[in-house]
Specification:
about 140 residues, alpha/beta
């Protein structure tokens, strides 16, 4: 951490761990639906209380040894059942894959590799946008 400039540390410490939006439009098999949206780096753990996860993510609770919604893989891939029932969109990156399955959106085709494109998704259409410019950084 000594090599990280102080302004970068400040920027990173001010980032939220979870973001929530209400009434986000998204195309489904029923047409455009308006849903709640949760964006978190890796996803939310299935089998664990969602409200409790949201609470410690909002608090940025670092007492937890491994914060699965930020670092998990298999445990955070799917939408937790309680959010599936309420029709909540869950958006994340972290997995190094582009995966769009209903209301579960994993948007991380770049996977930290400079030769891979940065990807975004446009809602409500679920249109995928890629930065395919060649960058020499």
């Amino acid at each position: 951490m000594k090599a990280v400039p102080d302004e970068h540390k400040k920027f990173l410490s001010n980032l939220v761990w979870i973001h929530e939006e209400d009434n986000v439009g998204i195309y489904t098999e029923k047409g455009v639906e308006f849903c709640n949206l949760i964006a978190v780096h890796g996803g939310l753990e299935r089998g664990k209380d969602v409200e409790e996860q949201i609470k410690y993510l909002k608090a940025k609770d670092t007492r937890i040894p491994k914060v699965e919604p930020l670092s998990g893989r298999k445990s955070v891939w799917d939408i937790p059942e309680e959010l599936r029932k309420t029709g909540t969109i869950v958006v994340s990156g972290h997995h190094g894959k582009l995966h769009v399955d209903g209301l579960r959106l994993i948007i991380d085709q770049v996977g930290g590799l400079p030769q891979n494109p940065v990807v975004a998704i446009v809602l409500p259409s679920k249109t995928i946008v890629r930065d395919t410019n060649t960058h020499n950084c």
